[in-house]
Amino acid sequence: MMTDQGSSLFQIALQQRAASVEMLLADLLSDRPHTGEISRPPRLMAAMRHGVLNGGKRLRPFLVMESAALFGADTHAALRVATALECIHSYSLVHDDLPAMDNDDMRRGQPTVHRKFDEAAAILAGDSLLTYAFELIAADETELDAGAKVALVTALARAAGIGGMTGGQTLDLEAEKIKPDEAGIIRLQAMKTGALIRFACEAGAIVGNASPGDRERLAEYGSAIGLAFQLADDLLDVTADATDMGKATGKDAAAGKATLVSMHGIDWTKQQLSGLVAEAEELLAPFGAKASLLRDAARFIADRQS
């Protein structure tokens, strides 16, 4: 558990990072065409903004920027990479909410994009956020060397694609028909949720030109907190109400979906969360006090209430 002071400092830092991302996103997603663009259809831009500028903790961007800070990385480059990741994350939510996927009407207390606009607008907004993310990394305004950009694009594509998030979403949909065993659940969650969180931490190391060993250490930290994030999410689906969550709860049980919480119970899940926090803290030990906010992030993820 975090101390009151630690919690306060973490919350301030999280809010500051989120505000920086929100400001950049608002500028990047204006109706004004950028160099090389012919035009920006207003309805598409409105749907994109609704999908990405709708609140949220911006935890993944926070992890990028704090991991980068461990290595004294360029803060503007880290911010742009963090914002690119948030575009990917937001696209995934827009598409996951569609009737063909999770069929959700609310996201962060607001109508989902396909409810606010329509399904076609949601699909196109998600497609646009996905492709825009890679442009943000590759653009001249992201002042990183070519090798770092290639590494980021490759790692992000893998985290978001077949062997990562979209592959995990496929397994999640299949799990509604055939319940996976424990190993299958862990694999599904590592792909659907954990891959982008792992990337967030590894990306900061790439931006900071970290050694291969430190890059792997940050990636492993990301894997630990990624699993913790999904365990906490599944726990909240059982224990929280829709008002606190800003979306429907109890959906896993209603769909008969297997989770580690349904398999092992609430007490076991809480013990696992404590173990994952300890693992994350051990991975961060070599960085000393510089990693204090990343330690707090692990505790926040395990203890979160929404």
From TrEMBL:
Q: Tell me which PROSITE patterns the record gives.
A: POLYPRENYL_SYNTHASE_1, POLYPRENYL_SYNTHASE_2
Q: Does the keyword Magnesium apply?
A: yes
Q: Which cofactor does it need?
A: Mg(2+)
Name the residues that span the membrane: none
InterPro entries given for it? Isoprenoid_synthase_dom_sf, Polyprenyl_synt, Polyprenyl_synt_CS, Prenyl_diphosphate_synthase
Question: Molecular function terms in GO for this entry?
Answer: metal ion binding; prenyltransferase activity
A Pfam family reported for this protein in Swiss-Prot or TrEMBL: polyprenyl_synt
Keyword tags? Isoprene biosynthesis, Magnesium, Metal-binding, Transferase
Q: What GO biological process, any one, is recorded here? A: terpenoid biosynthetic process
A single Gene Ontology CC annotation of this entry is: cytoplasm
The record's similarity note reads: Belongs to the FPP/GGPP synthase family.
Recorded protein name is Probable farnesyl diphosphate synthase
Species the sequence originates in:
Phyllobacterium myrsinacearum
Q: Lineage of this protein's species?
A: Bacteria, Pseudomonadati, Pseudomonadota, Alphaproteobacteria, Hyphomicrobiales
